[in-house]
Amino acid sequence: MIRINLLPHRAEKRKRRRTQFYVLSALMVVLGGLIGFLVHSIYTGYIEHQDARNAFLKSEIAKLDQQTAEIRRLREQIEALLARKQVIEDLQSTRAESVHLLNELARGTPDGVYLKSVKQAGGRITLVGYAQSNARVSHLMRSLEESPFLERPSLVEAKAATVDDRRISEFTLSIGIERPKAEADASEPQGSGSKAKGARK
Q1: Per-residue pLDDT for the chain (201 aa), expressed as one digit of tens each?
Q2: Is 123 part of a structural domain of the chain?
Q3: 142, 153 in Cβ contact below 8 A?
Q4: CA separation (Å) from 70 to 66, 76, 83, 147?
Q5: H or E stretch including 157?
Q6: Distance CA 159, CA 137 (A)
Q7: Whose C-alpha in 37, 59, 120, 144 is 20 to 30 A from the C-alpha of 84?
Q8: Residue 143 counted as domain residue
Q9: Which processes are annotated in GO (biological process) (predicted)?
Q10: In a 3-state reduction of DSSP, which class is residue 161?
C-alpha cells in the first residue's frame, strides 16, 4: 500500500495563503494610506482656498470700512458746509432787519412813549417801554400795524409804574416781522408803503 504524505502540500498551501493575506493586508494599508493622504490633500486644498477667500474678503471689508469712514467724514464736512451756507444765507436775508426795525420803531413811536428794551427771537420782536397813558400804547400799536415791515402787534402786558415820582404805564408788546416782504419793502419808500397800507384799511 502506497502512503502519500500531504502535510508538506497543506503547509505550502497554508503558507501561500498566509503570504497572500499579508500581501493583501499590506496593499490595503498602502491603499488606505493613499486614500487618506488624497482626502487630506483635497480637504487641505479646500481649507487653503477658503482661507485665501476669507483673507481676500477681510481685506476688501477693511477697504470698504475705510471708504465708509471717508464717506462719513466727507458727509459730515458737507453737512457742516451746508450749515455754514445756511447761516450765511440767513444772515444775508436778514441783515437789513435791524435797520428796518429801528427805522420803523423810530417812525412809529409817538410822543410820550419811551422804549426800554427791544429783543428779537426768530421772527418775533418784544418791546418793553413806558408810556404816559394807555392811549399812547394804543397809538403805538396802530402805528406799528401800519408798517409794511411789521405785523400783528399784540399787547402782552400793561401795568402801572412809577418813574421819577410820576405814575406812568409800563407795557410789553410782541410784534412779528414780515420777512418775505422785506426785500420788496426795502426797494419801496417807507412812506408810500405806509400810506398804501393805510389806504387799504
Answers
A1: 555 555 566 777 888 888 888 899 899 999 999 999 999 999 999 999 999 999 999 999 999 999 999 999 999 999 999 999 988 887 776 666 677 777 777 777 777 787 888 887 777 778 888 888 778 888 888 887 777 777 787 777 777 777 777 787 888 878 877 754 434 444 444 444 444 444 444
A2: yes
A3: no
A4: 6, 10, 20, 52
A5: strand 150-163
A6: 11
A7: 120
A8: yes
A9: type IV pilus assembly; type IV pilus-dependent motility
A10: strand
End-to-end CA distance of the chain: 161
* Amino acid (1-letter code) at residue 35: I
Q: How many whole angstroms separate alpha carbon 36 and alpha carbon 20?
A: 23
Residue 153 near residue 141, CB atoms below 8 Å: yes
Q: What is the pTM of this model?
A: 0.41
Q: What is the DSSP letter of 121?
A: E
Instruction: Tell me which H or E stretch contains 167.
Output: strand 166-177
**Residue 118 included in any domain:** yes
What are the grid coordinates assigned to 180, written together?
418775505
Output the domain CATH number for residue 125. 3.30.70.2830
* Residue 155 to residue 151: CA distance in whole angstroms: 13
Residue 188 lies in a domain: no
Using CA atoms, how far apart are residues 150 and 120, in angstroms rounded to an integer?
Answer: 13
- Helix count (H) and strand count (E) of the chain? 5, 4
Run of H or E including 155: strand 150-163
The answer to whether 169 and 133 are in contact (CB under 8 A) is yes
Give the count of domains, the chain.
1
